[in-house]
Amino acid sequence: AAKQTGEPVRVWSPELDEHASSHAQLGAEMRTALDTGQFRVVYQPIVDLETGSVAAVEALVRWEHPERGLVSPVQFVPAAEQNGLIVELGEWILRTSVEQMARWRAELGDAGPGRVSVNVSARQLNRPGFAATVAAALADSGLPARHLTAEVTETAVFEGGQAVIALHELRALGVGIALDDFGTGHSSLGLLQTVPVDTLKVDKSFVDGITEAGRQAVIAESLMHVSTGLGLSAVAEGVETAEQAAALRARGYRLLQGYHFGRPVADPDFDLVRTTVDLL
Ligand code: C2E
Ligand code: CA
Ligand code: CA
Ligand code: CA
């Protein structure tokens, strides 16, 4: 049943439909979505080829819109960044993920994932007090900081000094820091000198062509050298085939993430993931 909003009835037109999918429209509906619990967090495994275990999971937000169905974060995260709601949404995602991770620790122990990796947007990171928000979420859930990683993009860090301060505060708490989509930004290598990072997430664009001895393979190989040389871990993103996994493994990658090992789901089956790794 349609909600009674007191607004005039709108008749469908191509123009209206186009407007309805705009950032502004999504942004306006996001407030209600937050208040009525339309967001979900799903988790995608990051596997360790050496141990055959799920080293971590990445938390990814989903919007189950009552009329539009599933709306992609590619559409609504930028809108939420624009209207500022990403701060509240991001804190909800953080708290939900940290609580879920605490449950897995309690239920599965070392048979479960070792970490949850949560995406943090530029707007969150650049707002003073972000590290305190993280500390409070950890304290409330009882999860030790070493089981949490913050995934930040190069652009978010590049934006300002506050972001760098926040990263140092997170590091001091014991939270891991991963540079997301590594290699696609403006100053990837330069950032590694100033920012406390422990993990590089090597972008899917370098994984796609890894089996074809071309430029992407050379770059993926170089990024592994950088990561090893600096004592960082590297996660290869978007691994879709066993061939890509084998090619990455041959180049020293041991942490892999992608549809080949598991899609993002509400409650991943960690045993199933382990079986896929064992088959490699
Ligand atoms: P990202 O952080 O780079 O996340 C990885 C994206 O790649 C996810 O898309 C994931 O579902 C997808 N993916 C994983 N494995 C594969 C694969 O093998 N093949 C392909 N084609 N795709 C794969 P998703 O969940 O749609 O998220 C898209 C982007 O939206 C994320 O990119 C991130 O930038 C943003 N996002 C998602 N969740 C959050 C969140 O909780 N907070 C914030 N701030 N941003 C988020
Ligand atoms: Ca990410
Ligand atoms: Ca990524
Ligand atoms: Ca990406």
Structural write-up:
The protein contains 13 helices and 9 strands. It is an alpha/beta fold and 280 residues long. Helix 2 (23-35) crosses helix 3, helix 4 runs parallel beside helix 6 and helix 6 (130-141) packs parallel to helix 8. It has helices spanning 14-20, 23-35, 73-83, 86-108, 122-125, 130-141, 154-158, 161-173, 188-194, 204-207, 215-229, 242-250, 270-279; strands spanning 39-48, 53-65, 69-71, 115-119, 148-153, 176-182, 199-202, 233-236, 255-257. It binds ligand C2E and calcium ion (3 copies). One calcium ion (CA) is lined by residues 58, 119, 151, 180.
How would you write the strand order of the largest sheet? Answer: 1-2-4-5-6-7-8-9
CA-CA gap between termini: 50 Å
Low-confidence region ranges: none
Ligand roster: ligand C2E, calcium ion
Q: Given the structure, what is the number of helices?
A: 13
Cα gyration radius (Å):
20 Å
SS elements, strand count: 9
Main sheet properties? 8 strands, mixed, barrel
Helix-strand pattern: HHEEEHHEHHEHHEHEHHEHEH
Protein name: Bifunctional diguanylate cyclase/phosphodiesterase
Domain EAL: 23-278
Keywords: Membrane, Transmembrane, Transmembrane helix
